[in-house]
Amino acid sequence: MGGRILIIGACGQIGTELTLKLRENHGNDQVIASDIREGAEELMQSGPFELLNATDELHIREVVEKYEVREVYLMAAMLSATAEKAPMKAWDLNMDSLFHILNLAKEGKLDKIFWPSSIAVFGPTTPKDNTPQTTIMEPTTVYGISKQTGERWCEYFHRKFGVDVRSIRYPGIISYKTLPGGGTTDYAIEIFHEAIKNGEYTSFLAEDAALPMMYMDDAIKATIDIMEAPAEKIKVRSSYNLAAISFTPEVLAAEIKKHLENFQISYEPDFRQSIAESWPSSIDDTAAREDWGWEHEFDLEKMTTTMLDGVGKTLKEKA
Ligand code: SER
């Protein structure tokens, strides 16, 4: 075993912080960052980086060989809102990249894979509150269809070829270091930037659009915990439900108002509202808690103070 770790999509919202954490844990030169574009300075300067298109199978193989990679975190994907605008491109990126990695593992060239799924695998016919691990899944977005299909393939490669693939269904991830790209849950980040800069925010989701969310540190912890758990503890090989906090734009605005009392929110729902309406309001993640000991740390209050602080500092640095 041993060998290095490759992050594909290392410059994105989650990839950036995941790469930095893995470098801290394993040593900078053990963790290879790759993306289709260069990313944050801290990421670029802390260890090896390769410009890599996640759909380029040959190039992925070359990088895996060059660095003697044994573990891949495939974080590249087109998210829900962007995917609706470029369905075929989203399908190609989200599916091809996964097959390239699954096949490498099937050939024995990788020991372990992390591939993120999403709450987007659920749809309007899924029970909305405390959505169970196993339930009706009829996603209506391109992104959701690609993630659900990916889950089926992960389970298939595990069952048929013994591929050690591990996955969680991320809720909306909230963070301030790297901006998110094209998701329906992005309002919960924009709101902090606008609250601090302008004291007001116009939400693209309606006031009562409740969605499952999580602060970045918890998402990184879950990702590393599931990858470090002994293989026999990972009983679900499609993807695990994962939950922390659920709230509506109205509730989040009220929490921000506790710190910035003049903050004003208004609502102009756009096409992303119907995506939000098709997703769960809250998630039952008992399986993840029981199987590999998942626990979250950030509640709404702690997330809000951390975000106000972090976004405040970032905006000051830029000024
Ligand atoms: N945050 C993602 C999105 O909104 C959900 O996985 O697309």
TrEMBL record:
Protein name listed in UniProt: NAD-dependent epimerase/dehydratase family protein
Family, similarity comment: Belongs to the NAD(P)-dependent epimerase/dehydratase family.
NAD-dependent epimerase/dehydratase domain boundaries: 5-242
GO molecular function annotation: L-threonine 3-dehydrogenase activity
Cited Gene3D superfamilies: NAD(P)-binding Rossmann-like Domain (3.40.50.720)
GO BP term, example: L-threonine catabolic process
InterPro entries: Epimerase_deHydtase (IPR001509), NAD(P)-bd_dom_sf (IPR036291), NAD(P)_epim/dehydratase (IPR051225)
